[in-house]
Input
Amino acid sequence: MTAPAGGFMGEPSADGRFGDFGGMFVPETLVPACQELDRAFRSAWGDPGFRGELDRLLRDYAGRPSPLTECPNLSSELGVRILLKREDLNHTGSHKINNVLGQALLAQRMGKTSLVAETGAGQHGVATATAAALFGMDCVVYMGTVDIARQELNVFRMRLLGTEVRAAETGSRTLKDAVNETLRHWVAVADTTHYCLGSVMGPHPYPWMVREFQRVVGEEARRQCAEILDGGVPDVVTAAVGGGSNAAGIFAGFADTGARLVGVEPAGGAAVGRAVPGIVHGSRSYLMQDEWGQVLEAESISAGLDYPGVGPEHSHLAATGRATYEQVTDAEVIEAFSLLSRTEGIICALECAHALAWVSRARADLAGRTVLLNLSGRGDKDVDQMMGILG
Amino acid sequence: MTEAADAAPPGGTEHGWGRLESALRDRRNRGGKCFVPYLTGGLGDDWLETICAVAAAGADAIEIGVPFSDPVMDGTVIQQANDRALSEGATPQSILAEVRGASADIGVPTAVMTYANIAHHMGYERFASSLAEAGISGCILPDLPLEEVGEWAACADAAGVETVLLAAPTAPDERLPRLCARSRGFVYSVGLMGITGVREALAASATRTAARIKAVTDMPVLVGVGVGTPAQAAEVCRVADGAVVGSAIVTRMLEGAGPDGVAGLVAEFRAALDAAHS
Ligand SMILES: Cc1ncc(COP(=O)(O)O)c(C=O)c1O
Output
């Protein structure tokens, strides 16, 4: 593995590339909006006033820092020491709020009055709706009709927060199509509206910006691990990968260490696993597609991971070997979801149950090691669905 | 037209204009306005016949849409057409093969419009040469903006395929000359900030953007996106050299109007442009 000049998980190149991946593959009509956002983010991120205000919001509103939890019961059951980074305890129930507060604050600084977002599981939609309420902005969220049906609770939460939820009814009617609809919406209203994208995907500067807004997860975890590991780092850092924002956030805190970084994809949505590059939704990255380049529909038990692409930086981390990516099946995920509930009293989101499913499967190899797992969200939204499956 | 205006433009192709640009300049030189309809490739059994009929009805060139699963610049009509063609088994290869067999009958230059991943997946070089082999003159990949088009455009240039670039109403002044310098065939002036689809009225941005572009280039400037009726086409051509019309045409195809029905609509556009600008 050869580390790039600036090390891993630094700034992308001027043209928004992480190695061969990334870029700004959007119609000319969206280029000025992306460039405006790039300039605004650079200026804000270098401004101590903006950083201070965001830190305050993350602390007083979202409840950061999130705890790091030792899991004695689970650890003894698996023979692996497991530390959970508790993003499930954030306000709105997942890591998505970290990114959304950053983008909403930025949108306000840019003079935008409205937000638009896509959502899969609804966690990002709820977080965006929450920030819109807090900042007094109008908000529209696009969600595939398949996801609307399986995440009813989050649809109601968004409406309660004053957001208009619109159905994406084309294609696979999941996250991919919600992204298409949001881009189509944004192009007509970009002068007043910020597209609050929910993961480390999309055109530059989103993959970089969203990772920077999620970096707080990795930085906190690094300090918290150092405290309990005598200044050391865990052997393995793992997280579920949909678009890849919770993974990018926690990886960013350990990219410069010897820790092994492992992203976990659903078997039915393994863009990195298949490793075929493609261009969709603004960037070049690994992408599930057919022999003609038509984007395939992902299939996963978890709405938040039901995405055929992946953030470009993950493709770069995979191509360079700095991180590896594993795949787990829906059945393994259901088992992990139950295991964590039963052993530790934590009902987690199906997304992060993917990471635990991998740890559980790999426990022989990981025996005696310390694994830091990003528990990206809580399971309330999934309980209904699991009731149908587990009875 | 002076001789100077007829010479290949500085920054244009060394070998003069391609077939697409020549046809559009020809129409303009004769004092006319260009009409370029967009038809979805692989839509229905008679799409190729429809293309031939549309050419005979007065199209100066034809855009052939190669369906892509995630057309972010397209509104509901072209999305539906894409989905239907894909479900009927259309592939880039099947469409190109059929066009190749019919290029003599089509008789006017054609340009493929699709999204970058279709070309990327086949490999830019291979995609460019398959267009050339099919007798297709031009190509429009709307998700390759100026900053990303270089790699593709080099392959297209080498294969003799004219890459048409889009210019947006929000493009800053300094961007327009660079877009025009890199564009081949014509400059696609985007009529409004939005996606394809028929609107009640022509947006003010349609003529404004075309005028800004015409001020910096001698290339043909055609307006597309949001031009949906013969009257709107005539209106935009008070400034522009021509109009590109997609959703209105594709709606007819989706309704099953057949070659004659679609050609009838194209004839209406042709007549409106001829009447307004003769
Ligand atoms: C709890 C949770 N984890 C993970 C994800 C996947 O997103 P990402 O890969 O960007 O972290 C989602 C998406 O909805 C989610 O809700």
Q: What stands out?
A: DSSP finds 13 helices and nine strands in chain B. Chain B has one domain: 32-277. The two ends of chain B are 16 Å apart (CA to CA).
